[in-house]
Amino acid sequence: MCQRLSTHAKRTSVPTIPVATALELHYYQLISRYDLYTELLDNVHEKSPYDWDVLLLLLEGYRMDWQTENVTRIRNKVFQLNAEEYKSKFDLLLTRGYMYFEVEKYEEAITNFNSALSYIEAEAKTENDAAGLFDAIHEANSCLGRYDDALTAIDSAIQNCPGHCLYYHAKATLLHKLRRLEESIEFYNKSMTYASRTCYLLRGSAYHDLGKYDLAIADFDYSCTHYKESTEAYKRKARSLFMQKKYFEALRAMDRSKQIESLDDEQETEDVLREFEQEVLVYDQVLEMDPRNIDALISKGVGMNILGRYEDAIELFD
Known about the structure:
The protein is mainly alpha-helical. It has a domain of 162 residues: Serine Threonine Protein Phosphatase 5, Tetratricopeptide repeat (Alpha Horseshoe), CATH 1.25.40. α5 packs antiparallel against α6 and α12 packs antiparallel against α13. It starts with 18 loop residues before the first helix and ends with a helix.
């Protein structure tokens, strides 16, 4: 649960950057030259120190370039900012809360999220904005193990945005943690259109914990027949079958789990190769615009080498 907000420092508007500068930044992103990207943004930031979106773009650039010291420097700068100096106090406090969340300072995150609540009406924020803020408070409290407080926050999110499957799913998992199993099943039912495969797995686990093993197995089977087979579904099914003393069927479910795990490893290799194929195509586009771009040539050659296109790579380097 604590991963969903970990990188959520979002821009809230279009940065006030000249078109020519924006195109140059886009080009540096395209060729993965984040050192040049951040150098250019540093200059922009010096001219517009209170442009919140430029600051966030700069932070993103430092992250992409693995400049951890500068990431920490910008983050600490954000921690010290005075909200009164910015047009949108809500956006600053919300994003600063996410940054505290990212470094696992959940109490500070909650403090900023709660402060942002006071600007919802003044800045004419929508009910969706309010719901997202309460969801963030729920996440931070969950990471602290304060599930009752998290439940209060997610109820407020639902009140602001009723019918949102994501919030129903969050409430279901909280009720599950609190061992309020019948209630959790009710909210898993309401959130079935969101992450349905996960919902079937979790609802099946709630049924298992209630001792309703037939219903649990039905959910695990449905997850595998209507969505992608998973090792987790078969492991949970085996557990329920074992509780029913159906030992032979439980062993078969565990065997299937191991088979899928092996297939997943093969699929992961194929996915990585497919990503390299896409990268080679991107470098082709860069080289069309700039045939002498050394970085693009080298990166394309490395990609071809990984894909086993050795002759093409040698020809490129020649």
